[in-house]
């Protein structure tokens, strides 16, 4: 199977590498210059990358980027062949997804929204979880590729429902981490060490996968980006936009979005979203760290 992979960022590079190792013929394109992905063909434009591809896989930053890569000048849309499947692992607007899918189907191709939950480490270890929306036949066509790049996939329904479910997931991730960050900041201010607090958290009903994953990084004060804060902020804005369109109130998330916005203004946008802790620390006049911090 010939695959065009568009977007070689924190997640995309590892995903494309996995496809090559599994024996797929992969042509890659990235918006900015980047080091080659061994075993792939590099294209100068999305249009060139998608030429003759049976599957066009997108993994870019936001809704505008997807539109530009697909439908802009020298976009992949120009090279789509009848029967091709576009799989979009970006996290974007569900409403925009429906419009993009309609345009692609007019060309005789199909669209599957395939955002994922996981992180840089999950992409590197091929343990991503894909959240799918679209036609069952098209999903079946890309299923072998999903199996190479991830450990599970969930079909949430028709086109757009994958993106909708991804927003629901990121809402929970942001809220759970915020609760953790506020709790350990208060703990530090009250003189409770992080090293003594973490075993209690993990033994109690507040234990969660989000805390389990993030706690070791926080303990070491390692805020290198597994999922950059600026991209989580983008997702929070997508969630609030979708909520407004659906007439759903999310008052707690609005407060969290403000914290992310301020943390981004503080210059933390390219750090991991766990760096929102640094803003809470600044306000409280404390620093949270474990014994493992250098």
How would you characterize this protein structure?
The protein has 294 residues and is α/β, with parallel strands linked by helices. It has 2 domains: 157 residues, NAD(P)-binding Rossmann-like Domain (Rossmann fold, 3-Layer(aba) Sandwich), CATH 3.40.50.720; 121 residues, N-(1-d-carboxylethyl)-l-norvaline Dehydrogenase, domain 2. The chain has 12 helices and 9 strands. The strands form 2 sheets. The chain has a 6-stranded parallel β-sheet, with helices on both faces. It has a 3-stranded mixed β-sheet with strand order 7-8-9. The model has no long low-confidence stretch (mean pLDDT 96).
Can you identify the CATH superfamily of the largest domain?
NAD(P)-binding Rossmann-like Domain
Q: What is the CATH domain class of the largest domain?
A: Alpha Beta
Q: Which class of secondary structure composition applies to the elements?
A: alpha/beta
- Principal-axis shape: elongated
pLDDT averaged residue by residue: 96
How would you spell out the order of helices and strands? Answer: EHEEHEHEHEEHEHEHHHHHH
Number of strands: 9
Weakly predicted, low-confidence segments:
none
Number of domains: 2
């Amino acid at each position: 199977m010939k695959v065009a992979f568009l977007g070689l960022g924190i997640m995309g590079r590892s995903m494309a590498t996995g496809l090559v190792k599994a024996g797929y013929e992969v042509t890659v394109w990235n918006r900015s210059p980047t080091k080659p992905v061994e075993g792939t063909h590099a294209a100068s434009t999305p249009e060139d990358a998608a030429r003759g591809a049976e599957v066009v896989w997108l993994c870019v930053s936001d809704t505008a980027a997807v539109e530009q890569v697909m439908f802009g000048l020298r976009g992949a849309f120009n090279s789509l062949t009848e029967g091709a499947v576009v799989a979009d692992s970006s996290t974007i607007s569900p409403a925009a997804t429906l419009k993009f899918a309609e345009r692609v189907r007019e060309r005789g191709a199909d669209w599957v929204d395939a955002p994922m939950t996981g992180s840089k480490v999950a992409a590197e270890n091929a343990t991503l979880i894909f959240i799918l929306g679209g036609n069952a036949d098209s999903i079946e066509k890309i299923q072998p590729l999903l199996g190479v790049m991830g450990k599970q996939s969930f079909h949430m329904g028709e086109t757009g429902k994958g993106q909708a479910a991804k927003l629901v997931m990121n809402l929970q991730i942001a809220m759970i981490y915020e609760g953790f960050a506020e709790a350990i900041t208060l703990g530090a201010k009250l003189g409770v060490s992080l090293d003594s607090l973490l075993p209690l958290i993990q033994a109690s009903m507040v234990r969660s996968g989000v805390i389990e994953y993030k706690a070791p990084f926080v303990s070491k004060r390692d805020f290198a980006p597994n999922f950059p804060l600026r991209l989580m902020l983008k997702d929070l804005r997508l969630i609030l936009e979708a909520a407004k369109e659906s007439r759903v109130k999310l008052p707690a998330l609005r407060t969290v979005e403000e914290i992310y916005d301020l943390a981004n203004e503080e210059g933390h946008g390219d750090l991991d979203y766990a760096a929102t802790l640094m803003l809470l620390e600044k306000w409280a006049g404390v620093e949270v760290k474990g014994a493992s911090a250098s």
